[in-house]
Amino acid sequence: MKNEKDLQFETKVVHSSYNSNKHGECLTPPIYQTSTFTFPSMEQGAKRFSQEQGGYVYSRLENPTVAILEDRIAQLEEAEAGLAFSSGWQLFQPL
C-alpha cells in the first residue's frame, strides 16, 4: 500500500494501522474474543503482569482488536495515541 499519509480519509478508516503479517495473514483484522492470554514461561507471565515487558495479559486491560482500533483512532485524528474502553467505568481507571 502507498504511503498512508497520501490515502483518502475513507481508505484510512478501513485499512490504516493494520499489518496482516501480525495476525495470521488475515485481510481484515480478526476479532479476538479471548479474555486471557498464554505465556511461554512463568517468568514472562510475571514480567507482563508487572508491566516490565509488553504483551497481552487480560482482555479487560488490552487485546489486539482494541489495539488496532486505538491505532486507527490516533491516525485518523492525527494524534500521538488513541484510547478505547470496553465500558464507561473503565474510562476512569487510568485517571
Automatic annotation (TrEMBL):
Q: Which cofactor does it need?
A: pyridoxal 5'-phosphate
* Cited Pfam families: Cys_Met_Meta_PP
Q: Does the keyword Zinc-finger apply?
A: no
The reply on keyword Phosphoprotein is no
Q: Which GO terms describe its molecular function?
A: cysteine synthase activity; lyase activity; O-acetylhomoserine aminocarboxypropyltransferase activity; pyridoxal phosphate binding
SUPFAM superfamilies in UniProt? PLP-dependent transferases
Record's keyword terms, sorted = Lyase, Pyridoxal phosphate, Transferase
User: InterPro entries this protein is in?
Assistant: Cys/Met-Metab_PyrdxlP-dep_enz (IPR000277), OAc-hSer/O-AcSer_sulfhydrylase (IPR006235), PyrdxlP-dep_Trfase (IPR015424), PyrdxlP-dep_Trfase_major (IPR015421)
- What's one GO BP annotation on this UniProt entry? transsulfuration
Sorted alphabetically, the Gene Ontology cellular component annotations on this record are:
cytoplasm
Q: Which family does it belong to?
A: Belongs to the trans-sulfuration enzymes family.
Please state what the protein is called. Methionine gamma-lyase
| Species of the source | Halalkalibacter wakoensis JCM 9140
Question: What lineage is on file?
Answer: Bacteria, Bacillati, Bacillota, Bacilli, Bacillales
